[in-house]
């Protein structure tokens, strides 16, 4: 029986992970759950899976959470609140594995905590890899943690590279597929509303990542994520637009052979891969029928209309704090866009200006990463206020 700490339980990935775990009650127990601020959703999950601990990041919600658990007859479940409580779940000695599905840089501290505790870390929270970079990979190695990617492209690459040794990897090329988002093919991005941007053509996801997919920032973050996870330099990671999202990514080897992982676009598959690896379990995902699909299509990304893909490559090459600043500016800009305080193309301007205007050496600890993140958010808020 594997005891899982499920962080971000109330989100899109969290719900899919609960669905996979529910198919295998003999194999997985949800030992603890954590969320951001939504009490009722956390308690509803607690009612279903009866974890030992429930944590909510928003400290002001502690009393509400405690009371709601009591009202539901779940007094034996321990309630916790605050960022430190969420982090504690990630390092809890009673948890064998951590499924980290928090959105944004709020996931940095829990990811580092799980890494330092030597956990099996099933990682959906790409922002913590983007911010953590080399330091995170070093921490994982030093503490004997095991990182299993959940992001669909990285799960695909992980599976394609499973049989490859270091020499084979050195001569390989990663090809990340991208749906192209809801505005693929458009050259004019004016007048785009949050409702239009969160409507992803293929995947059902949280609001922040859906906007990232629409700007192609998601693919930029994924280039950086792939570079750190698999040790590939930026120039050996390509992006290929594949609107059907059936091929989740590919690896091309020295001999010209290209390995790909395919499936129905449903996160339950990469989640099941991470949960069971190196075994395979049922995920509940609908089977792929290529005959029904008939054809798969491909095109090059339009980096002129969607400039953040280029900015992400630049950030990765620059190193230092560039990726942390880009991520922080993007989170702030996307939040402002979702609140209708910034236009869609305003996201491009804000993220580009902030990233290019902030240089410093790479941080040496998770705390330093969070300090850079906070400073970048402060500068971004100031910049956006001046722009209005
Ligand atoms: N959705 C997808 O298909 C994919 C997602 N990912 C990545 O997975 C991560 C989660 O995405 P997704 O599930 O779509 O996002 P959602 O917005 O659906 O869910 C986010 C989760 O994080 C919680 N949360 C928010 N802030 C905090 C905080 N400060 N501390 C603890 N928990 C917090 C939310 O709680 P609350 O509900 O209370 O707000 C919620 O449980 C992201 O990094 C995303 O990039 C990667 C690939 C695919
Ligand atoms: C499901 C998943 O992994 C997302 O990151 C997805 O890739 C988003 O789609 P885009 O390819 O449009 O960014
Ligand atoms: Mn992805």
UniProtKB/TrEMBL annotation:
Residues 262-378 form the DXP reductoisomerase C-terminal domain. InterPro entries: DXP_reductoisomerase, DXP_reductoisomerase_C, DXP_reductoisomerase_N, DXPR_C, DXPR_C_sf, NAD(P)-bd_dom_sf. One of its GO terms (biological process) is isopentenyl diphosphate biosynthetic process, methylerythritol 4-phosphate pathway involved in terpenoid biosynthetic process. One of its GO terms (molecular function) is manganese ion binding. Its EC number is 1.1.1.267. Pfam families: DXP_redisom_C (PF08436), DXP_reductoisom (PF02670), DXPR_C (PF13288). Pathway: Isoprenoid biosynthesis; isopentenyl diphosphate biosynthesis via DXP pathway; isopentenyl diphosphate from 1-deoxy-D-xylulose 5-phosphate: step 1/6. Mn(2+) binds at residues 151, 153, 222. Its cofactor is Mg(2+); Mn(2+). NADPH binds at residues 10-13, 36, 125, 127, 206. 1-deoxy-D-xylulose 5-phosphate binds at residues 126, 152-153, 179, 200, 213, 218-219, 222. Keywords: Isoprene biosynthesis, Magnesium, Manganese, Metal-binding, NADP, Oxidoreductase. Catalyzes the NADPH-dependent rearrangement and reduction of 1-deoxy-D-xylulose-5-phosphate (DXP) to 2-C-methyl-D-erythritol 4-phosphate (MEP). HAMAP family: DXP_reductoisom. This is 1-deoxy-D-xylulose 5-phosphate reductoisomerase. It comes from Sutterella seckii. The lineage of its organism: Bacteria, Pseudomonadati, Pseudomonadota, Betaproteobacteria, Burkholderiales. The gene is dxr.
């Amino acid at each position: 029986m594997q005891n899982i700490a499920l962080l971000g339980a109330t989100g899109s990935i969290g719900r899919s992970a609960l669905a996979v775990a529910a198919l295998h009650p003999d194999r997985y127990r949800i030992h603890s759950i954590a969320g951001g601020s939504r009490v009722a959703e956390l308690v509803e999950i607690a009612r279903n899976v009866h974890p030992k601990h429930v944590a909510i990041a928003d400290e002001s919600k502690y009393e509400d959470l405690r009371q709601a658990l009591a009202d539901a007859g779940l007094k034996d479940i321990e309630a916790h609140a605050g960022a430190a409580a969420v982090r504690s779940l990630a390092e809890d000695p009673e948890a064998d594995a951590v499924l980290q599905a928090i959105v944004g840089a709020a996931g940095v501290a829990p990811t580092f905590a799980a890494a330092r505790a030597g956990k099996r870390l099933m990682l959906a929270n790409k922002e913590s890899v983007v911010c953590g970079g080399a330091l995170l990979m070093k921490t994982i190695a030093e503490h004997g943690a095991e990182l299993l990617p959940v992001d669909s492209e990285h799960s695909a690459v992980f599976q394609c590279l499973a049989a490859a040794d270091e020499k084979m990897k050195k001569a390989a090329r990663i090809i990340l597929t991208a749906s192209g988002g809801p505005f693929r093919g458009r050259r004019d991005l004016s007048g785009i509303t949050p409702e239009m941007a969160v409507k992803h053509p293929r995947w059902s996801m949280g609001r922040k990542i859906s906007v990232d997919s629409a700007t192609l920032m998601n693919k930029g973050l994924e280039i950086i994520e792939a570079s750190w996870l698999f040790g590939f330099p930026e120039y050996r990671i390509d992006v290929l637009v594949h609107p059907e999202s059936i091929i989740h990514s590919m690896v091309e080897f020295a001999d010209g052979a290209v390995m790909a992982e395919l499936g129905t676009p449903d996160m339950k598959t990469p989640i099941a891969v991470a949960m069971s690896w190196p075994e395979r379990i049922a995920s509940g995902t609908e089977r792929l029928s290529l005959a029904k699909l008939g054809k798969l299509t491909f095109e090059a990304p339009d980096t002129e209309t969607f400039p953040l893909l280029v900015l992400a490559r630049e950030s990765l090459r620059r190193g230092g704090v560039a990726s942390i600043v880009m991520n922080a500016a993007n989170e702030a800009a996307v939040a402002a866009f979702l609140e209708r305080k910034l236009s869609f193309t305003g996201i491009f301007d804000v993220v580009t200006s902030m990233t290019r205007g902030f240089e410093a050496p790479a941080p040496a600890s998770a705390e330093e990463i969070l300090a850079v993140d906070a400073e970048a958010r402060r500068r971004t808020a100031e910049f956006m206020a001046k722009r209005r």
